[in-house]
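Technical annex, item 7. During the second reporting period the consortium partners agreed on a shared format for inverse folding records so that results from different sites could be compared directly. Each record opens with the tokenized structure and is followed by the designed sequence. A conforming record, contributed by the partner at site C, is shown below for reference.
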């Protein structure tokens, strides 16, 4: 079996240890010859990198592993896959994304609303540069992109690299939901045949078939209504994530047609969610005090002790597993079914062809082959059209340096609505993002 060369961009991420563990677990089905981690933050990455050395010595000794902050070492002509999970501005800017809108009585969240707008405007620049760096030395490597906000990034990359068919934007949240459904129904998530439509962080499951062709969505809906909803890995989640999953019950009760992505809470119930958010201690602070602290402490402990056995940081998670099984489906031309982000081109027949939609597709070595969705109901169509207009205007604001389009984008967003509030938060975000955004005129 061929062995693959992989570069992980964003090696200092707290999600990287789970990905590294997934690589160990899948060495017989997705064997890797050379693995390089790359991050511009050398200090953060060194903690994960030293942990990785111990992990691989024990579980995958034949892998050629290194980590670097030199793009010439990271991006080479022999790469087969590049896994991207970058966060431009780090937690410092994420905290501003959340706290600036909250200070004005608007939802503060990293991928939704003004926070997502700010993050998207930062991410576009670095993702474009990254792809140009990769393509300068390697035209054929598959670039699997996790970078958020994936919806805005996907629109930008499609606009800038329309002919590059080896960029695939993905998100692990639908996979997290499938795992959670599986726990409720005592099934493995890969045994589901899902039908899904929407935009990234803005979609719905319409059917969930079992291997015999039975639609389990009605059963699952009733279970959620009767007993609520929790993530499959609830014991490893911070408090805010448990609250996020709990909101699914209300969404299903109010809109019972389909099963929603958890992020829809911010758009359907902005006032209710806003009341629960603490402007002084946001999700960023929770992550820093929780997952980030745990991960880095455990990685340092592993490196010091020289063994990863018994480590709490190497549990499997959907984030690490999902990108690997997608890569495996590409590598072996398996045609497995995943929910990914693609240019619409008629997949959802009553949405614009240029929309970057999130749908189920068979993933092959020649790329994704999406399953048609057809027409969607008016309520969902209206929500998606408005959200896509916001995403498209955000990308146009970046590419054209247009203040007017940035203002239009934020005014359209359901977490803002008011043009007056949109202008206020936009001006504050422009000031906070100097050096990251293009100048808006």
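Designed sequence (site C submission):
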């Amino acid at each position: 079996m061929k062995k693959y060369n992989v570069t992980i961009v964003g090696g200092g991420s707290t999600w990287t240890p789970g990905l590294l563990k997934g690589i160990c677990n899948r060495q017989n089905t997705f064997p890797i010859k050379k693995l390089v981690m790359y991050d511009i933050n050398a200090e953060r990455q060194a903690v994960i990198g030293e942990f990785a050395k111990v992990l691989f010595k024990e579980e995958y000794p034949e892998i050629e592993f290194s980590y670097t902050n030199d793009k010439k070492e990271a991006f080479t002509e022999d790469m087969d896959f590049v896994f991207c999970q970058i966060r431009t501005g780090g937690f410092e800017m994420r905290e501003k994304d959340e706290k600036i809108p909250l200070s004005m009585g608007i939802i503060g969240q990293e991928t939704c609303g003004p926070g997502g707008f700010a993050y998207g405007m930062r991410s576009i620049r670095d993702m474009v540069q990254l792809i140009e760096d990769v393509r300068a030395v390697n035209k054929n490597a598959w670039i699997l992109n996790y970078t958020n906000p994936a919806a805005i990034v996907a629109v930008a990359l499609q606009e800038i690299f329309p002919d590059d068919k080896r960029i695939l934007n993905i998100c692990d949240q639908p996979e997290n939901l499938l795992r959670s459904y599986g726990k409720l129904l005592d099934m493995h998530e890969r045994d589901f045949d899902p039908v899904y439509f929407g935009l990234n962080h803005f979609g719905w499951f319409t059917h969930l078939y079992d291997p015999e062709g039975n639609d389990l969505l009605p059963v699952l809906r009733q279970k959620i209504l009767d007993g609520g909803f929790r993530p499959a890995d609830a014991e490893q989640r911070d408090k805010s994530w448990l609250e996020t999953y709990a909101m699914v019950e209300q969404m299903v009760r109010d809109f019972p047609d389909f099963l929603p992505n958890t992020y829809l809470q911010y758009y359907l119930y902005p006032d209710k969610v806003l009341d629960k958010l603490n402007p002084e201690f946001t999700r960023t602070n929770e992550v820093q005090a929780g997952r980030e602290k745990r991960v880095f402490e455990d990685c340092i402990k592993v490196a010091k002790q020289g063994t990863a056995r018994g480590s709490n940081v190497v549990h499997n998670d959907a984030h690490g597993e999902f990108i690997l099984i997608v890569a495996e489906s590409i590598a072996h031309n398996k045609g497995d079914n995943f929910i990914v982000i693609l240019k619409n081109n008629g997949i959802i027949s009553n949405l614009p062809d240029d929309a970057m939609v999130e749908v189920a597709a068979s993933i092959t070595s020649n790329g994704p082959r999406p399953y048609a969705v057809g027409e969607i109901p008016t309520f969902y169509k209206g929500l998606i059209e408005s959200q896509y207009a916001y995403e498209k205007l955000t990308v146009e604001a970046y590419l054209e340096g247009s203040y007017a389009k940035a203002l239009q984008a934020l005014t359209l967003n359901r977490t803002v609505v008011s043009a007056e509030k949109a202008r206020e938060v936009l001006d504050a975000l422009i000031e906070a993002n100097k050096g990251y955004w293009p100048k808006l005129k």
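The chain has a mean pLDDT of 96. The first strand starts at residue 4 and ends at 9. All partners now use this format for quarterly exchanges.
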